[in-house]
Write a structure and sequence with these properties.
Blueprint (H helix, E strand, L loop, with lengths): L6 E8 L2 H17 L6 H18 L5 E9 L2 E8 L19 H8 L2 E6 L5 E8 L12 E2 L10 H8 L9 E2 L1
Antiparallel strand pairs: 1-2, 2-3, 3-5, 4-5, 6-7
């Protein structure tokens, strides 16, 4: 039995420099929505490195899919591309300006790996451990038909007794 539902987000894109920044913002916003703020920096760094690798190395095209999934207390970020060649970790020299992406991912993640997609490309993924408090969304109050809302209960009675029209709305918190 799974005690918590999984949360899943998918973004399809062309791995172009202008799109990489957009995906970073999407992933960051999604993690904020899931109340996983402590994971944003490492997830954004990892997805940037993976998308940069697609941009620089993937053949025949730069189309890819980014998936983010939270299951129990583990966040998995993966990038699927159409290039069947598997990446390798390189040792970059002190003056090298590239070649550290997978080493950075290995340094900031709990685990990472690559798996082929049956001749149709590959999936490069990494995992981050979610703090236990972050793995469960706190309940959000919904004001409207189900609660009294964040106002004085007598305010409507007072307004109605003076013949004023009452405006009611629903606010999702």
């Amino acid at each position: 039995m799974i005690s918590e539902p999984s949360r899943h987000c998918t973004v399809e894109l062309q791995a172009l420099p202008s799109r990489i920044g957009q995906v970073r913002r999407i992933i960051s916003a999604q993690l904020r929505y899931w109340h996983l703020d402590p994971l944003i920096d490492h997830a954004a760094l990892g997805v940037t490195e993976l998308l940069t690798n697609v941009h620089r190395h993937a053949q025949p095209d730069k189309s890819c899919t980014v998936e983010v999934e939270l299951l129990l207390e583990r966040l998995t970020v993966s990038v699927h591309d159409h290039d069947p060649r598997l990446p390798t970790v390189r040792e970059a020299g002190a003056s090298s300006t590239s070649g550290r992406g997978l080493a950075l991912i290995a340094a900031v993640s709990e685990s990472w790996g690559v798996r082929p997609r049956g001749g149709a490309g590959k999936i490069v993924w990494f995992t981050l451990s979610a703090p236990p408090r972050c793995s469960v969304l706190p309940p959000h109050p919904v004001y409207g038909a189900t609660t009294d809302g964040p106002f004085e209960p007598d305010a409507f009675l007072h307004a109605e007794s003076h013949g004023a029209s009452v405006v009611r709305s629903v606010v999702l918190g």
